Amino acid sequence: MNTENQKKIAAEKATESIQSGMVVGLGTGSTVYYALLKLGTMAREGLDIIGIPTSEGTEKIALEQKIPLTTLATHSTIDLTIDGADEVDKDLNLIKGGGAALVREKIIANASQKILIVVDESKVSRVLGTTFPLPVEIVRFGWEATQTEVNRICGRSTLRVASTQDGKQNPLITDNSNYILDCHFDGILAPAEVELQLNNIPGVVENGIFVNRADKIIIGTSSGIQYMG
Ligand code: 5RP
Fold first, then answer.
1. Ramachandran sector of residue 152 (left: φ over 0; alpha: ψ -120 to 50; beta: rest)
2. CA of 118 relative to ligand 1 center, distance in Å
């Protein structure tokens, strides 16, 4: 089974946990996309759910799929969130933010009673930070000074850029109007500590380490579904 199909089976498996009446956190990314398509079909067929998106991109897809939406202001508790990840370890720790949505994803995760993470098998890692750089969202003011402080922890980071329509490279601006640093660790052996250390730097809004958040990781593999948690 190829990677795309691995993403699809993992995401569709997660939607089997959604029941009528639920407030559902809607993650971001190419894996969750398949869950959004499935939830759209289920909602149009009568499943009574209401979603809270983790990004403007997901909001757009959810609206196209006719998934009813709400906000944390109206529903402060989310029954179940389905989200993706960039790297996962056997302790269910995650690196997220490859899609630049990590701030809203962590806020949604914090408000969620249950979190299902959907990935393909390439995301499983022995030590976090060895296969994917850690995204850190920072405010634009004084960002170079913030980067210097972040580098004291990770060694080296790069400002994430995005291509404009005319082919220029500009700093990527998140949904929250901030920048992203991608931090190149040689492995994150103590994720809980590093998460706190990074968030203690003035100018850092949030980082993509998620510890003790996921209840279950659903992994699409070449031979079918596997679970962690
Ligand atoms: C977005 C995320 C995504 O969940 C993560 O990047 C995984 O995306 P994909 O399923 O496209 O690999 O954290 O900020």
1. alpha
2. 9
CATH number of 3-125+211-228: 3.40.50.1360
For 134-205, CATH number out of 3.30.70.260, 2.60.40.3200, 3.30.2130.10, 3.10.310.10 equals: 3.30.70.260
Alpha-carbon distance of 31 to 138, in angstroms, equals 25
Ligand 1 proximal residues by C-beta, below 6 Å = 27-31, 83-86, 96-102, 105
* Active-site amino acid positions: 105
Give residue 216's pLDDT band: very low, low, confident or very high (50, 70, 90). very high
pLDDT of residue 141: 98
Ligand 1, from 4, 9, 28: best to mutate by most atoms within 8 Å of Cβ?
Answer: 28
Whose alpha carbon is nearest atom 10 of ligand 1? 31
- Closest ligand 1 atom, residue 101 Cα: 14
Determine the residue type at 201.
I
Using alpha carbons, select from 41, 47, 105 the residue that is nearest to residue 72. 105
- Count of residues in the chain: 229
Quote the pTM value: 0.97
Give per-residue pLDDT as tens, 39-67.
999 999 999 999 999 999 999 999 999 99
Q: Where do the domains of the chain lie?
A: 3-125+211-228, 134-205
